[in-house]
Amino acid sequence: MAGARDDDPHVVVELLGRRTHILDLSREIGPDIPIYPGHAKVAFWWHLTHDEVKHYRIHPESRFGGYAVKGMALCDHVSTHIDAVYHFNRNRPDLTVERIGLETLITPGAWIDLSSVPPRTHITRPHVQRALSAAGVALRPGMTLLCYTGASKNWEDPVRFNSEYPGFDEEASRWLLDQGLVNVGTDAPSTDNPADTRYPNHLVHGERCVPHTEILANIDRIPRHAGFSVMILPLRFQGLTGSPVRALALWTDE
């Protein structure tokens, strides 16, 4: 992998015969990350250590050092995650996270900068349209739109991260889905304004049966506003309303 470091979210690989850039859009998962208010926190614990396995399960003369296993407990909406339709539409228990199709998870992508919208206010249709115009982005059916609000800068401050960000109003939410988007992503903890407990964006996505993705990272590091692909890969948890994801932006050298 050219140019890769252990802490570098950007690598270059050969993919399908082409030199491809991959940017990790995912946050880490661990006991100390910010958790949306009211959601379960993350817990990890040792189930079996190397020493325990070596002592109890391995032949005394074996050179094998044993294996290790950890247990974990977490919410299905933790860190970078996708919201399945059942999360915000109680009448669609058939649309849980394992039912999201690959055509929704691997799509053409675009991103816009909405960081000028003040925290705890609504992102309106004019905000979105101005950002699209500034970025030179034309939306089309089947796309994923990533929205940079600037909330990601507060990741190390859980109180601010969970309370200081904007979210879409109902008109903007409807207009975006009218363009045929199959997923809308944000770097914030929610696509909704935390000061508006009517959850207009979740309401609209529930009505339209369109998932969305929250707590993305590195959106503003994608070097082009369009002409890249988005890959969002949840685990196939049966019956759950969401899943942590590994989210990637991919593009090739032109």
Q: Encode the helix/strand succession as letters.
A: EEEHEEHHEEHEHEHEHEEE
The first-to-last residue Cα distance is 19 Å
The strand order across the widest sheet is 5-11-10-8-6-12-13
Give me the CATH fold name of the largest domain: Glucose Oxidase, domain 1
Give the beta-strand count. Answer: 13
Sum up the overall morphology in one term.
globular
CATH superfamily of the largest domain: Putative cyclase
State mean pLDDT (0 to 100 scale): 96
Percent in helix: 10-25%
Q: Mind summarizing the main beta sheet?
A: 7 strands, mixed, barrel
Tally of contiguous helical segments: 7
What structural class results from the helix and strand content? alpha/beta
Q: Which runs of at least 5 residues are low in confidence (pLDDT < 50)?
A: 1-5
In total, the number of domains comes to: 2
Protein name: Cyclase family protein
Organism: Candidatus Segetimicrobium genomatis
GO biological process, one term: L-tryptophan catabolic process to kynurenine
GO molecular function, one term: arylformamidase activity
